[in-house]
Structures are given as structure tokens and as C-alpha cells.
Automatic annotation (TrEMBL):
It is found in: Endomembrane system. One of its GO terms (cellular component) is endoplasmic reticulum. The chain crosses the membrane at residues 32-51, 63-83, 95-112, 124-144, 156-175, 196-215, 227-254, 294-313. One of its GO terms (biological process) is regulation of gluconeogenesis. Belongs to the nucleotide-sugar transporter family. SLC35B subfamily. It is a multi-pass membrane protein. This is Solute carrier family 35 member B4. One of its GO terms (molecular function) is UDP-xylose transmembrane transporter activity. Pfam families: UAA. Keywords: Membrane, Sugar transport, Transmembrane, Transmembrane helix, Transport. Its main location: membrane.
Length: 331
């Protein structure tokens, strides 16, 4: 029952989170900092109350290691959200972040000296090809859409190029953080809820450097049109409603993934998260009418096919079927 409940949380939380993020980004493309701050604050307060026991529970992993992890986590979160302000469309943003397998494999080879099978290398090649196709086609769209003048077109393309650089940096940094977490968990044991709390609580002082931008968006949010919240009947600026729903759905998403990791194998978790990304992508394209060509669809298929190949779904499903047949014979 709990795995099914967790899958429901992941799909409901993560997919709806993408919707509210895009609603925010479409109105104010530069709102990434206030969104990140609100998410971090909410999860930090919840963790302080229920995980850290109001600060009375000492951490199982030394704070100095969390400080390193938090620096990477904070950087990844801010850069990923800020990329939306650099001519990066939401579908491309989602597809690009699906390339985490590439970054993990590259850093795993370099740092951990890992070696992989030809099957996994093939899957990574598919993911790489998919991201290249989508990136190249999006680059052409940016150039065409911004061709009011040579100067405007060049400026739009330059911002887009900076956005691609930001996403690439965040992808590699996220993979490095994953390897760092892996080594910490191997040394001190798995403490996912504790890591979730410290990853969101310790970076909060860093938002002081973003205070001006956050305040500017507070003013903009206050000026947005009024919206009457269903059931409650309370009237609030609609941007604050979108932000609240984004924060709540983000929390539901993270909690769902956490429950899933404690109840299911990593294969199942990866498969669920991959399918969730695909559903979110399809909904974003259809609901928001984002431009998506046949080349984009081909790239998307490559990305998700490569991801599923990397997890060796078919081999593991075959092994599971064989095990079930053995169990039936025993019975």
C-alpha cells in the first residue's frame, strides 16, 4: 500500500509542481530566486519541527560534511531556477535536466574510476543524442523568434547560450553532489530525512545575497491580480497563490520520493521518476501549447529510452518474472 501511495504522491506532487512553476515563470520569468527561497524555507521549518526536534536532535553526519553538500545543493537549485530567465523554455529545461545520467557516468568514471557495460554506454549515447537534438532545435527557434533585428536576435541567442551553460554547470554539480552523498552514506549510513532538512536549512543565510531580487518580486507578486481561493473563499494576489501551491506540491513530491526510496528498489524509484518527467513534459507541451516539433519528439524519445535502458528495466523485469515463477513452483 505504501509504495502505491508514494507513487501517487510523486506523480501528483511533481507533475502539479511543474504546472505552478510554469505559471509563475510565464508571468515573471526572473522569479526563480523567490521560488527557491520559499521552497527551502518551508521544508527547513518542517524539518526543524519534526526531524531535528526543535534543534535538540544531533545530526548523525557531521555538520562540516553537510556544509559541503549544502553549498553544492544551493548552487544547483539557484542556477536551475535562474536558467528560466535566460531564454530557456520549460520543455527544454525539463529535458536537459533528464540528462543527469550522462553527468553521473562521466564523473563516476573520472572520480570513482568506474567502468560500465556497452549496454550502458549505448543508453548514455541515446540520452546525449536526444539532448543535442532538442538543444539544437531550440536554438533555431530562439534565433527565428527573435529576428526582429540582427541585434535583438544575437542578444536573445547569447542569453539562451548562457542559459545552456548554466544548465550544464548545474547538471555536473548535481552529479558531483550525488557522488559525495554516496560516499557519506557509505561511511555514516543512510539518513535521508536528516539530509533533506540540512540541505534546505543551512543554505537559508545565503539568500541574503539575493534579498534585493526577492524583495522586488514580493512587490511584483503583491501587484498581481486578485484571486479567490476555492473552498476557503480568501482573496489573495494570484502570484502568491501560485507560489504557495508550488511550495506545497514541491514538498509532496520530495516526500513521495523519500517514501519510495525506503519502500522500493532504486530501479523502481528511477523508473517512476523517469515516467513522471515524461508525463510532466507531455502535459507542459499540450496544456501550455509550447512549441514542440517532430525533432523535439524524437529527442524526447531518445532521452527517455536511453534512461530506461540505463536502468536495465527489461533485464530486471525478466529476473523478477523468473523469481515469481520459482516462488509459484515452491508453493
Amino acid at each position: 500500500m505504501r509504495p502505491a501511495f508514494a507513487v501517487g504522491l510523486v506523480f501528483a506532487g511533481c507533475c502539479s509542481n511543474v504546472i505552478f512553476l510554469e505559471l509563475l515563470a510565464r508571468t515573471h520569468p526572473g522569479c526563480g530566486n523567490i521560488v527557491t527561497f520559499a521552497q527551502f524555507l518551508f521544508i527547513a521549518v518542517e524539518g526543524f519541527l519534526f526531524e531535528a526536534d526543535l534543534g535538540r536532535k544531533p545530526p548523525a553526519i557531521p555538520i562540516r560534511y553537510y556544509a559541503i553538500m549544502v553549498t553544492m545543493f544551493f548552487t544547483v537549485s539557484v542556477v536551475n531556477n535562474y536558467a528560466l530567465n535566460l531564454n530557456i523554455a520549460m520543455p527544454l529545461h525539463m529535458i536537459f535536466r533528464s540528462g543527469s545520467l550522462i553527468a553521473n557516468m562521466i564523473l563516476g568514471i573520472i572520480i570513482l574510476k568506474k567502468r560500465y557495460s556497452m549496454f550502458k554506454y549505448t543508453s548514455i549515447a541515446l540520452v546525449s543524442a536526444g539532448i543535442f537534438i532538442c538543444t539544437f532545435m531550440s536554438a533555431k527557434q530562439v534565433t527565428v523568434q527573435s529576428s526582429l533585428s540582427d541585434k535583438d536576435g544575437f542578444q536573445a541567442f547569447a542569453w539562451w547560450l548562457l542559459g545552456i551553460g548554466a544548465l550544464t554547470f548545474a547538471l555536473l554539480m548535481s552529479a558531483r553532489m550525488g557522488i559525495f552523498q554516496e560516499t557519506l552514506y557509505r561511511q555514516f549510513g543512510k539518513h535521508s530525512k536528516e539530509a533533506l532538512f540540512y540541505n534546505h536549512a543551512l543554505p537559508l543565510p545565503g539568500f541574503i545575497f539575493l534579498a534585493s531580487d526577492i524583495y522586488d518580486h514580493v512587490v511584483l507578486f503583491n501587484k498581481s491580480e486578485l484571486y479567490q481561493v476555492p473552498v476557503l473563499g480568501v482573496t489573495v494576489p494570484i502570484m502568491w497563490f501560485y507560489l504557495l501551491m508550488n511550495v506545497v506540491t514541491q514538498y509532496v513530491c520530495i516526500r513521495g520520493v523519500f517514501i519510495l526510496t525506503t519502500e522500493c528498489s532504486s530501479l523502481t524509484v528511477t523508473l517512476v521518476v523517469t515516467l513522471r518527467k515524461f508525463v510532466s513534459l507531455i502535459f507542459s507541451i499540450l496544456y501550455f501549447q509550447n512549441q514542440f516539433t517532430l525533432w523535439h519528439w524524437l529527442g524526447t524519445v531518445f532521452v527517455f529510452t536511453g534512461t530506461l535502458m540505463y536502468t536495465e528495466v527489461w533485464k530486471n523485469l525478466g529476473a523478477t518474472k523468473s523469481q515469481l515463477q520459482k516462488d509459484d513452483k515452491k508453493d
